[in-house]
Amino acid sequence: MKIETVCIIDDDPIFVYGTKILLNYNSSFGSSVIVNEDGKEALDNLTSMVRSGEKLPDVIFLDLNMPIMDGWEFLDEFVKLPIKNKPRVYIVSSSIDNQDIEKAKTYEIVKDFIVKPLSDSILTDLFKTIETEGLHNTSL
């Protein structure tokens, strides 16, 4: 099973660029990357996709610290959307605060908390887990 679409919600252009490179070299990844620089932009785009019946990304990599709408605010609004097959959300943050990690566990949609940087081995393990468990059915 290939992960066709990944959504990156992060305001750090270096992280976004590096993640795109890692995705391009991963055999489990399809071809489409959607990038949003803050939670509001992402929420608006994903809401539009839901309303138009478009397929949502398979995986969302979500940063916590962003301008306009942070990752927590995004999650609080995103979980309210009427979506049958919700994407797998992975928080990818430079935070090592246990409170953030524990808070992430309170969201059913969040599958894991990954401390930056994202590496090829982390991405490969993550995609293997998704392939083993199926795309839309597990939690942290």
Question: What's this entry about, in short?
Answer:
By secondary structure, the protein is of the alpha/beta class. The protein has helices spanning 13-24, 39-52, 71-78, 98-104, 120-133, and strands at residues 3-9, 29-36, 59-62, 88-93, 110-115. Residues 5-131 form the Response regulatory domain.
CATH architecture group name: 3-Layer(aba) Sandwich
Structural class: alpha/beta
Biggest sheet record:
5 strands, parallel
- What is the number of E strands? 5
Based on CA inertia axes, which overall geometry fits?
A: globular
Distance between the termini: 21 Å
Strand fraction band? 15-25%
| Total helical segments | 5
Task: Tell me the name of the CATH homologous superfamily.
Answer: Response regulator
Under CATH, the topology can be stated as: Rossmann fold
Mean pLDDT: 89
What is the share of helical residues?
Answer: 25-40%
**Which parts are unreliable, with pLDDT below 50 for 5 consecutive residues or more?**
135-140
Number of domains: 1
The Cα radius of gyration reads 14 Å
Kindly report the spatial arrangement of strands forming the biggest sheet.
2-1-3-4-5
Written as H for each helix and E for each strand, in order along the chain, the element string is EHEHEHEHEH
What's the CATH class label?
Alpha Beta
Describe this structure in words.
- This protein has 140 residues and is an alpha/beta fold.
- It has one domain (15-119): 3-Layer(aba) Sandwich (Rossmann fold), CATH 3.40.50.
- It contains five helices and five strands.
- The protein has helices at 13-24, 39-52, 71-78, 98-104, 120-133, and strands at 3-9, 29-36, 59-62, 88-93, 110-115.
- It has a five-stranded parallel sheet with strand order 2-1-3-4-5.
- The longest helix is centred in the N-terminal third of the chain and has 14 residues, at 39-52.
